């Protein structure tokens, strides 16, 4: 691992713009880092609400690209996993879930995304996580985000 590859800036990006590092500072554990990353995504989604759809899609694209690149030097290739503090994937997945939604559908989308990401019981989520390297780190959150978006969109259609 080169100094450039493991730079503090790359760690900051992999941690979801630092969000994944907050739990360790607050309670000495990385538990909850993904949820903190998803909360950051919710804040970003609210900030992007007045902007056109292409801005939302751009934010999703940027976070997806970062989630495929930034965590690579921190991955345990033997265990096929990422450290708990890596949260850029949750930021990307939550942004997918929250796209184009507001109000109750937005809340439902966020909650379904987090549940799908944490428990990985919905079809495709656990399988996506088993993909190699940063693709697996990101793919389960993309699938969970799509479930969240579908659930939120369904609520929007029904109400």
Class based on secondary structure composition and strand pairing: mainly alpha
**Count of the separate structural domains:** 1
Measured as a percent range, the helix fraction is 55-70%
Reported for the largest beta sheet, the result is: none
Net shape? globular
- The residue ranges in which pLDDT falls below 50 over 5 or more consecutive positions are none
Q: How many individual helices?
A: 8
Q: How many whole angstroms does the radius of gyration measure?
A: 15 Å
Oligomeric form: single chain
- Can you write the helix and strand succession as a string? HHHHHHHH
Characterization of the model:
The protein has 159 residues and is mainly α. The chain has one domain (8-158). 66% of the residues lie in helices and 0% in strands. The chain has eight helices and no strands. It has helices spanning 8-14, 22-27, 33-48, 53-69, 88-98, 103-119, 125-129, 133-158. Helix 4 (53-69) packs antiparallel against helix 5, helix 4 runs antiparallel to helix 8 and helix 5 runs antiparallel to helix 6 (103-119). The chain starts with 7 loop residues before the first helix and ends with a helix.
Task: Write a concise synopsis of the structure shown.
The chain is mainly α and 159 residues long. 66% of the residues lie in helices and 0% in strands. It has one domain (8-158).
């Amino acid at each position: 691992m080169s100094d450039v590859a493991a730079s503090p800036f790359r760690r900051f990006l992999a941690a979801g713009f630092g969000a994944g590092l907050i739990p360790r500072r607050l309670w000495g554990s990385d538990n909850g880092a993904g949820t903190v990353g998803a909360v950051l995504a919710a804040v970003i989604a609210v900030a992007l609400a007045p902007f056109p759809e292409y801005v939302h899609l751009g934010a999703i694209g940027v976070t997806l690209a970062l989630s495929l690149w930034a965590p690579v030097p921190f991955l345990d290739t033997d265990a096929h996993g990422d450290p708990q503090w890596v949260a850029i994937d949750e930021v990307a997945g939550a942004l997918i879930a929250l796209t184009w939604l507001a109000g109750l559908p937005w809340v439902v989308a966020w909650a379904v995304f987090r549940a799908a990401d944490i428990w990985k019981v919905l079809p495709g989520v656990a399988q996506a996580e088993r993909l190699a390297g940063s693709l697996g780190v990101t793919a389960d959150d993309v699938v969970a985000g799509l479930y969240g978006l579908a659930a939120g969109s369904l609520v929007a259609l029904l109400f």
